[in-house]
């Protein structure tokens, strides 16, 4: 039986022009009472099934590599755009030999110069669990295929979690999660690496925040940061928004829980003890040392500048850190000075997009970090698809460029100039979506989510909270609102509490 709330759900096929046009492929927009009596087909279940279906299509897209590309030809996996780190690292990081990540040193003969696993602790655990599920026996090729399948099954579960969490974060807009489920870049990059694990934990953390459960938010955010570094950056937007709303306890509760859960996971692996006392384990610190020491790499603005100028940019770390600091200060100022307090998803998207734009490397699967945040920050199909088109073109560009550089004198693939264009498209697509989100913050009336008068439906304890700590235009707007309240009280038309 349908609830009253079902009739209040925002339907993109009614409000979004692109969604309306796209729905013609399946018979047109769904009517308000079209699903009466078919209660099983709730939005969340439909979205989860669509996400699983798209993930399966992404697996099919990897079929040429599964059959031969990962094993018999260095360039085949690039020309078919089906590369994945997963089968290569099964043997390349010693999982086929039963080595324990962070504790056992990887033999140089198989690691390509990597002495320990270069991933955070929870991602290493994810990889180890998949190795346990991988059947033994047979050729190394067969075991690498089975390892990819084991990881794909676990990543499929992560995909379902992401879809459900995004659909439930905003109670009246579950259909916005279709942006995640149908995102082409999501399907293409889902099984390249293990990023979906951290994305799922982050999506669950944002769901908990929308329900006002600050401790659960912090625990999940800390676990996400133990799987990938980027979720820790979301504490910044939470600090700014809680400061503006005068809710410091909410931030301290979430931040304390995040630090606690991160330590619980990391300390057993981080510290080793000998006669000289406790020391930081080399295997645990490998991820952080590698992130700091690695040179500029594929997809980054720094690689584009280096290739165009011939300058190796040895100080790229300094430039990236400086730009990140300045960008975070700018986002904080935006959050405190905007006419209306930004929504959490908006600032979260901006800070992660900033990290991606200034980072020394942009691997194709990093787009997964942004897809759920983009769906919550700017649930508009046109803008989302423009960005996704740029990301798909970059996805193709990097593989064809690697085919070009790996094919010797034949140079079959995309030359450096073409790859540089792909980098520019990725940068411009991300900047375009950032600009739209910033515009929505500066002009709240343009925000799709707030058209019905909502404040921040996924903001948890901050939803509807008054502004306490504000600057600039926000302070003037606050004073204007206060003056309006006083006038209503004076003329008997309202009260300060209304």
Automatic annotation (TrEMBL):
<comment type="similarity">
    <text>Belongs to the glycosyltransferase 87 family.</text>
</comment>
<dbReference type="GO" id="GO:0005886">
    <property type="term" value="C:plasma membrane"/>
</dbReference>
<dbReference type="InterPro" id="IPR016570">
    <property type="entry name" value="UCP010361"/>
</dbReference>
<protein>
    <submittedName>
        <fullName>Putative membrane protein</fullName>
    </submittedName>
</protein>
<keyword id="KW-0812">Transmembrane</keyword>
<keyword id="KW-1003">Cell membrane</keyword>
<feature type="transmembrane region" description="Helical">
    <location>
        <begin position="40"/>
        <end position="60"/>
    </location>
</feature>
<keyword id="KW-0472">Membrane</keyword>
<feature type="transmembrane region" description="Helical">
    <location>
        <begin position="146"/>
        <end position="167"/>
    </location>
</feature>
<feature type="transmembrane region" description="Helical">
    <location>
        <begin position="215"/>
        <end position="243"/>
    </location>
</feature>
<feature type="transmembrane region" description="Helical">
    <location>
        <begin position="318"/>
        <end position="337"/>
    </location>
</feature>
<feature type="transmembrane region" description="Helical">
    <location>
        <begin position="179"/>
        <end position="209"/>
    </location>
</feature>
<keyword id="KW-1133">Transmembrane helix</keyword>
<feature type="transmembrane region" description="Helical">
    <location>
        <begin position="250"/>
        <end position="271"/>
    </location>
</feature>
<feature type="compositionally biased region" description="Basic and acidic residues">
    <location>
        <begin position="479"/>
        <end position="488"/>
    </location>
</feature>
<feature type="region of interest" description="Disordered">
    <location>
        <begin position="476"/>
        <end position="498"/>
    </location>
</feature>
<dbReference type="Pfam" id="PF09594">
    <property type="entry name" value="GT87"/>
</dbReference>
<dbReference type="InterPro" id="IPR018584">
    <property type="entry name" value="GT87"/>
</dbReference>
<feature type="transmembrane region" description="Helical">
    <location>
        <begin position="344"/>
        <end position="362"/>
    </location>
</feature>
<dbReference type="GO" id="GO:0016758">
    <property type="term" value="F:hexosyltransferase activity"/>
</dbReference>
<keyword id="KW-0808">Transferase</keyword>
